[in-house]
Write a structure and sequence with these properties.
About 60% of the residues lie in helices and about 25% in strands. The protein has about 100 residues and is an alpha+beta fold. The model has no long low-confidence stretch (mean pLDDT about 90). It starts with a helix and ends with a strand. Strands 1-2-3-4 form a four-stranded antiparallel beta sheet, with helices on one face.
């Protein structure tokens, strides 16, 4: 009888260990995915800031095209309007109001 009781206790401890490891694995996976997502969002934000900084430099220096650090900015001046594009996408448009 004592042998069966020892086996059941060992089986119970093994089951608890497996459940604990499973929960720990799930927790680590959730945390790592959140960190990865945060890093991706941070990279996108830094890229956007870099794009706006290059656009500001282009306007300040009066250049119509400026490429720095892999960011290419095109500035179009037409009829008192300023259009700023990067990689074919419109970033900003300034229009003079009457």
């Amino acid at each position: 009888m004592a042998n069966i009781r020892k086996r059941s206790i060992r089986a119970y401890l093994l089951m608890e260990s497996l459940i604990s490891i499973s929960l720990l694995t799930i927790l680590v996976t959730v945390v790592l995915s959140a960190v990865t997502k945060s890093h991706q969002e941070n990279r996108e934000l830094v890229q956007q800031i870099e794009t706006y900084n290059v656009a500001q430099m282009a306007i300040q220096t009066g250049q119509q095209k400026l490429s720095i650090n892999g960011v290419c900015i095109d500035i179009y001046y037409e009829n008192n309007n300023i259009l700023i594009k990067s990689a074919g996408k419109e970033l900003m448009r300034f229009e003079e109001k009457d």
